[in-house]
């Protein structure tokens, strides 16, 4: 009753012209919001269409958190980077980190306002991948890369009927086993050769050169951490 009375007297204190103008403003604002809702629906449909067309993965199980790169060590250029978001934005250890070219790495440490990202080029990083045009999983591992040199990784357990070279490379994608969703680009396979056991091949993976100059990344924060 008090709220109703307050609203009644607040309206009585304004002239009819002011109330009419306020109603018009409210109508324009409502129409603008309706347009935005329709535009949002159209954009969602367009994103779904492009994802299907380009075979891009959808991140329905993740919340995307964009972050700026604030530090990289000369001695560990290809091992890790520091980003300017941490527990204050709900980041958690193990969350995948990506950019326009594919996989960057995963969150290694989370602090109050920053986080340490372990890069995909780090030799301690291992994940399951899949070769372009094939569904059998292979094993990827970061390599020993010189500072500022081209970043590379290695693959193992590649089926014998898969071929790739510098002139005819093949794209390596995430398999979807572990923290990374499937379909993310890892790099380009530039060489494969028979392994020591003769049962599988091993090879080299050329990583995206843009990894050396990243200023912005996106952290995929799981909506259901369990």
Order of helices and strands: HHEEEEEEEEEEEE
Structural class determined from secondary elements? alpha+beta
Radius of gyration: 25 Å
Helix content: 10-25%
Spatial shape = elongated
Mean pLDDT, all residues: 87
What spatial order of strands do you see in the largest sheet? 1-2-5-4-3-12
Low-pLDDT runs: none
Helical stretch tally = 2
The N- and C-terminal alpha carbons lie at a distance of 47 Å
Main sheet attributes: strand count, strand direction, barrel closure: 6 strands, antiparallel, barrel
Description:
The protein has 2 helices and 12 strands; from the N terminus they run ααββββββββββββ. It has a 6-stranded antiparallel β-barrel. The longest helix is centred in the N-terminal third of the chain and has 39 residues, at 16-54. It has helices at 2-12, 16-54; strands at residues 62-71, 80-83, 96-99, 102-110, 115-119, 126-131, 137-142, 152-158, 170-174, 185-194, 201-206, 216-222. It has 226 residues and is an alpha+beta fold. The two termini are 47 Å apart. Strand 1 (62-71) and strand 2 form a beta hairpin.
List the SSEs and their pairings.
Layout: H1 2-12, H2 16-54, E1 62-71, E2 80-83, E3 96-99, E4 102-110, E5 115-119, E6 126-131, E7 137-142, E8 152-158, E9 170-174, E10 185-194, E11 201-206, E12 216-222
Antiparallel strand pairs: 1-2, 1-12, 2-5, 3-4, 3-12, 4-5, 6-7, 6-9, 7-8, 8-11, 9-10, 10-11
Give a nutshell description of this structure.
The protein is of the alpha+beta class and 226 residues long.
Task: For the structure shown, list the relevant keywords.
226 residues, alpha+beta, six-stranded antiparallel beta barrel, six-stranded antiparallel β-barrel, 22% helix, 35% strand
């Amino acid at each position: 009753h008090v709220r109703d009375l307050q609203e009644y007297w607040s309206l009585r204190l304004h002239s009819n012209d002011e109330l009419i103008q306020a109603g018009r403003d409210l109508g324009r604002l409502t129409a603008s919001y309706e347009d935005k809702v329709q535009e949002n629906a159209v954009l969602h449909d367009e994103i779904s269409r492009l994802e299907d067309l380009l075979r891009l993965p959808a991140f329905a199980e993740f919340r995307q958190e964009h972050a700026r790169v604030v530090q990289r060590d000369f001695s560990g250029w290809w091992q890790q980077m520091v980003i300017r978001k941490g527990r204050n934005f709900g980041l958690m250890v193990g969350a995948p980190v990506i950019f326009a070219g594919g996989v960057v790495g995963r969150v290694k440490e989370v602090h109050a306002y920053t986080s340490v990202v372990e890069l995909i080029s780090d030799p301690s990083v291992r994940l399951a991948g899949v070769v372009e045009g094939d569904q059998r999983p292979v094993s990827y591992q970061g390599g020993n890369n010189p500072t500022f040199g081209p970043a590379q990784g290695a693959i193992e357990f590649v089926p014998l009927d898969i071929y790739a070279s510098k002139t005819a490379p093949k794209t390596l994608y995430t398999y979807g086993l572990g923290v990374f969703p499937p379909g993310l680009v890892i790099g380009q396979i530039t060489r494969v050769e028979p392994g020591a056991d003769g049962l599988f091949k091993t090879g080299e993976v050329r990583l995206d050169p843009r990894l050396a100059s990243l200023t912005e990344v996106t952290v995929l924060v799981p909506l259901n951490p369990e």
